[in-house]
Amino acid sequence: MSSTVLFRRGRVIDPRNGVDGIRDVLVRDGKVAEVSEALLPVPSSAEVVDASGKWVLPGFIDLHVHLREPGEEGKETVLTGCRAAVAGGFTAVVAMPNTKVVNDNGIVTELILSRARAANLCHVYPAGAITKGLKGEEMAEMGELVSAGCVAITDDGRPVMNAALMRRALQYSTQFDVPIMVHEEDLTLSAGGAMHEGPTSTRLGLRGIPASAEVAMVARDLVLLEETGARLHLAHVSCEGSVRLIREAKRRGLRVTSEVTPHHLILDDRAVEGYDTHAKMAPPLRSNRDVEALREAIADGTVEAIATDHAPHGVLDKLVEFEKGINGIIGLETAFSLTMELVHSGVLPPKRAVELLTHGPAKAFGLPGGHLAPGAPADVTVVDPSEEWTVDAHRFHSRSRNTPFHGRKQQGRVVQTWVGGRKVFENGQVGLSKESR
Ligand SMILES: NC(=O)N[C@@H](CC(=O)O)C(=O)O
């Protein structure tokens, strides 16, 4: 196993450590050993990666993926999800608990972790459920979930409609200092809706989900957060109103963090025209004005992470009338290039874009990695910022194909992914080289 790697002359962007410039990065025994402006001597037996013209980045961290195992292995497994992750430059993912055996107890958490160890590709951090069976009725064993390895507690896919239960969960979570991650949707407001409520839903004749379905719940949970002093993480924020409330809560010092998905930053509700179920997800694609507000919020630091909400589904789940289509799209293998669309169009400077995929999410959940200082894990993603390619869903490593971005031209591509100093992805191929297995 080549335990020494030298990344030569790449543009290293490491927002946490204020680095943005041409550097050599030396990796030894799974950790970053040195980052140098000057050329480093090549240690004997080192693997040398010529990174000139490339960006050398901390491995990306995705706070929000659905790996579907246990229970829906036809859509994704921990292994195929990890393959998709490293192909997308992600070296760590947080796995949502809405599997078909819900991750609401330590046994399921351990199963996911053992599958991740067997996959041996990237870090998988399970998130455990807030309530048993995601039913919103009775709290799950939070202590057991955290000691089994859950890094966040969430009913993602479902809101906790009962405010008293939510308040208790927030209160209880302070004992473990674990973030409570919320899918904000007032079911009485979203009921029957298939897309964002606005002129487009009226034109298409589809029942709408008003922005208030999200914003009202964000408001409720920020009030509960203030009373409990917990940590709240808002999943897949989609509207202007939510952003305004988060900004104000942060100003007052509340411990709130949040994430936005690439699709909510790139597409608006007009993507639903044509009734393509690949544009159907929860929360729905919102108005252009919401998209603008989200873009502002990721640029100014109101939102700390871009997370994919990678939600694999089968062909038949999507090949139905719009109203019957299942919610969700996959995102691991397009997240970086879609983020680069925001860089190329001037919405985000490169350093901020990288921060949203690395240090931002690491800090929000207190995860290792997300930067490249000496001593940090050698989780490294090498990208070509200008390579042009066209998204081809058939070539994804994910087991599913449900993306609205098939056929979209992209500029910026992941070239290599390294986890703990081992190369796990290179030029379209996933897997460890023989020496590092
Ligand atoms: N985001 C989605 O559209 N789908 C998610 C669950 C959810 O958050 O609704 C899924 O698990 O498929």
TrEMBL record:
UniProt pathway annotation: Pyrimidine metabolism; UMP biosynthesis via de novo pathway; (S)-dihydroorotate from bicarbonate: step 3/3
Keyword Zinc recorded: yes
Cofactor binding note from Swiss-Prot or TrEMBL: Binds 2 Zn(2+) ions per subunit.
UniProt keyword list: Hydrolase, Metal-binding, Pyrimidine biosynthesis, Zinc
Family matches, as InterPro entries: Amidohydro_3, DHOase, DHOase/Allantoinase_Hydrolase, DHOase_cat, Dihydroorotase_CS, Metal-dep_hydrolase_composite, Metal_Hydrolase
Reported cofactor(s): Zn(2+)
Name under which the protein is recorded: Dihydroorotase
Gene name as annotated: pyrC
